[in-house]
Amino acid sequence: MGRTIVQDVQPSFNGGLNVTADPSQVQPNQLRSAENGRLSEYGGIGKRLGIWRIVSSAIGSGQPIQNGYTWNQTGGRTILAVQAGKLFTAPFVPPAFSGVIATQTDSELTTETGVSLLTESVYSAFTDQGGTMSSTATPSFSAFLYPAPPDTECVYIADGGPLNRWNGTTLTENISGTPNVSFLRVYNQRLFGVSGTNQSVYYSDLNNGDSLGDGANGGGEAIIRTFGDQQTTALAVSGSSLLIFHATGISKWTGFTQDDIAIGAGSQGVTSEVGTTAPFSVVEVAGNVFFLANNGFYVVSDNSAPQSISTPIDSIIRTLTDAEVQDVRGVHVRQYQEVRWWIPNYGVLIYNYRLNAWSGPWTGGYLNPATTCLFESQDSNGKFVAIRGDELGYLGLCDPAGVYVDNLDPDGTGGQEFTLSFQPHRFFANDYMAEKAYRWGYLLIDPRGTTDVTVTWNTQTGTGTYTIDPAALAASERVMERVPLANRGEWIDLTIEDSGEADALYSRVEIQGFSMGRRGGT
Questions:
Q1: What pLDDT, on a 0 to 100 scale, did the predictor assign at position 474?
Q2: Exposed, middle or buried by CB within 10 Å (0-12, 13-18, 19+), for 22?
Q3: Strand 453-459 with 220-223, pairing
Q4: Cα separation values, 173 from 143, 163, 183, 219, 473, Å
Q5: 3-state secondary structure string, 293-331?
Q6: Which terminus of the chain has fewer CB atoms gathered within 10 Å of its CB, N or C?
Q7: What strands, in cross-sheet order, belong to the sheet with 76-83?
């Protein structure tokens, strides 16, 4: 009698990334790595999209972008960016992306017939509006109103000093009577701010941001000591409440009317266990608030206590220094139902809140040059998109359709290649102790134009690599590709790499071999 055939299956990847567990504990639907990968709605994994720069040369002096903001005011959409303490602005009217935008030859993209690429005529050059704001702080932005003339739209900017204001034509710095603030939110028709250095929450009069913290003009200050002398670090709106973050705690205040402003007396403790020292990790999503605490990522709302969401990746968080934690930046990417966080010196981690699963890191152009900010915007069809700023003074559109290189120039040339690399769970073929001889692997792929896929394996007795025939990929819309394996051991690890420029979707992995236990007989 021949040896027993054994097999093992990864039926999907909907469990996402798990780098915290020992390899023997990673579940059959989880991944041990997912670099430059994005999870699909139904648990497949594919290559992420790239980054398309919206400026052909660095903004201003080419120093790091401190932060950016999209102002959706009456009459148009404007991007604001702060660099070296100066404010830069530009109209933002991106084209609607559809289909394949370009093809790549020798690392340069060329225009497809009938497809419009970005140009400087689409993205007007950024205008230096001047300013002497902090050149080191991460500014916080909030669109609101000021009273001259009444109910005029503007964007307030907090940089750690007195409040600043941009009204579309003039930058007003250090507004008289306002306190030092570093983080802003609008709630119940008032502007709120915290400094990050004391226990205060500052508030404005109704529809008048200029009065923030100014008691003589209808604003004020509330001392929040729900958990003792804990400085306030960030703010978020959840449902009918304003969440007030401390370094290791969260308070909430619910203003039932526009005039109910007894914050100090009305604030309640949500938790004394977790808070944040990373104010720009705070991301609001449909009543839920995601944030990075000192021991992982959490989600909280006005009617629920914080819940940990990052157990599978907490081993990454534990390695971060205090300075790296403070530099974490988050953004909501609505079209993919994701929250993304930039982690210094690591890349971007992606939390899919539909699947409750992680992927990443996204490296390549997100790491080189390093990301300095992530913020939300909208394209010409009103679709929400994400914008990235970097340490060299560039802003780039994330996820442009059909683009699979990073930091592509506006005219469609240049760009940095990157590779999708993912590793399924460790395959034991249902027997953790017996040695197996591995013979075949099966990879279910929807190629969608990719032609550059390799599979690497590792066992206790050896390693190997197999490159999938590009013609086989090109000939099928969906293929169960058979990969010849080799070597023996109690387990086998597979790594799949895709350096093609397409959104190939990987849905299932199987391995097959023979048990090396004693043969049966009569």
A1: 76
A2: exposed
A3: unpaired
A4: 16, 7, 16, 18, 59
A5: ECCEEEEEECCEEEEECCHHHHHHHCCCCHHHHHCCEEE
A6: C
A7: 65-73, 76-83, 86-91, 127-128
Rounded to 5°, angle at Cα 396 from 391 and 399: 130
Interatomic CA distance for residues 431 and 491, integer angstroms: 9
Cα gap 164→68, rounded to integer Å:
15
Confidence at residue 125, expressed as pLDDT on a 0 to 100 scale = 84
Distance CA 34, CA 276 (A): 27
* Residues pairing with 136 in the sheet: none
CB under 8 Å to 515, separation ≥6 — which residues?
A: 3, 4, 5, 6, 429, 431, 434, 435, 436
Q: How far is CA 154 from CA 48, 150, 201, 260, 275, in A?
A: 35, 12, 21, 24, 30
**Confidence at residue 433, expressed as pLDDT on a 0 to 100 scale:** 87
In 337-437, which residue ranges form alpha helices assigned H by DSSP?
Answer: none
Distance CA 190, CA 205 (A): 6
Residue 504 near residue 450 (C-beta atoms within 8 A): yes
Contact 123, 54 (CB under 8 A): yes
The ranges of the chain with pLDDT < 50 are 1, 95-122, 520-522
Amino acid 196 reads G
